[in-house]
Amino acid sequence: MKVSFKKLWVLCAEKEMSKAELRKRAGLSSATFTRLRKNEEVNLSVILKIADVLDCNAGDMMDFIKEEPSQNEENR
Predict the structure, then answer these.
(1) Quick check: is 7 in a domain?
(2) What are the pLDDT digits (tens) for 62-73?
(3) Which range of residues forms the domain containing residue 15?
(4) Which residues pair with 65 in a beta bridge?
(5) For the chain, what is the domain count?
(6) C-alpha separations of 40 from 8, 68, 73, 76 in Å
(7) For residue range 23-56, what is the model confidence (pLDDT) as tens digits?
(8) CATH number, position 43
């Protein structure tokens, strides 16, 4: 499974909060924030910090997406 943080960016827009402001208020490093922007896995503590800043739940800011098996995996 993959993670998508698309809902996080929509939520920021709805709350009129820039990505830079979110990063600063949540106390996230630039490397961690880059992982979020690239839809890469982050620690649960990061999700908790963001949820606290945005006053939301994890499901409000992220989705899990099932990956389609590749051709190589199907032929095994």
Answers:
(1) yes
(2) 999 998 877 665
(3) 2-69
(4) 2
(5) 1
(6) 13, 17, 22, 27
(7) 999 999 999 999 999 999 999 999 999 999 999 9
(8) 1.10.260.40
